Amino acid sequence: HANINAIREQMPLKSDIDFEGCDDEMLLRYLRARGHNVVAAFALLCSHIEFHKNNPELLKGLNAFELRYILEDGFPCVLPYMDPVGSTIMVLFPGMWDTDTFSPDTLLQALMLTLMHLSESLTVQSRGVVLLVDFSEWTSTQAAYLNIKYIKKIVTIFENCYPVVFKSVHLINQPWYISALISFLRPFLTGKVKDRVFLHGNNLTTLHDHIPPESLPSQFGGDRCEVDQSYWAKVLLE
């Protein structure tokens, strides 16, 4: 518990942040996510609290019942099996986003709820998450929502908010401007994260170099059945 106490000793130095509700179990999750580095874990915790404080609109209705329709649409999907090293596999199909039904903020809320839930799993804390993003059927209508402010929120949610470590991020069938955007963002990502983002285009062979077909659904040239888009919604609604 020395590291937990070390984090608590840092809290008075951040008088502008409200640490109410930060119990030992929560602090331990942040420590695990940063390899028990007290400084890094405390920075992640502060970033988490500040993000919630600065985006109160994202906290309204942040529960599985309120978000059940977007979760049932597969935003996001978490697969019921792991990769060979035991990492949890999360899948996003941005091209299936119905912009008439779900606001951009609703997408962020579904991601936040998913990461909050995953961060409570000891398996996720020790083995991390692999993220697959398939841009099939992505349109200019959806792309129009990708302004700098929104992109910054997405990056913060994935990288600097929740005690979940992304072991790798794989983009498939991405359009040229998404590739350009990633190239632009790389310098702003932390050292480990920037080396964990892989752009595959329509080349599934390079994806299989990282994750073998026996651990992938058929949409990704894998041996498993198609992604059950409602599976994760059922887990969260239980």
TrEMBL record:
SMART domains: CRAL_TRIO_N, SEC14. Signal peptide: none annotated. Pfam families: CRAL_TRIO (PF00650), CRAL_TRIO_N (PF03765). GO terms for molecular function: phosphatidylinositol bisphosphate binding. Residues 78-228 form the CRAL-TRIO domain. PANTHER family: ALPHA-TOCOPHEROL TRANSFER PROTEIN-RELATED, CRAL-TRIO DOMAIN-CONTAINING PROTEIN DDB_G0278031. This is CRAL-TRIO domain-containing protein.
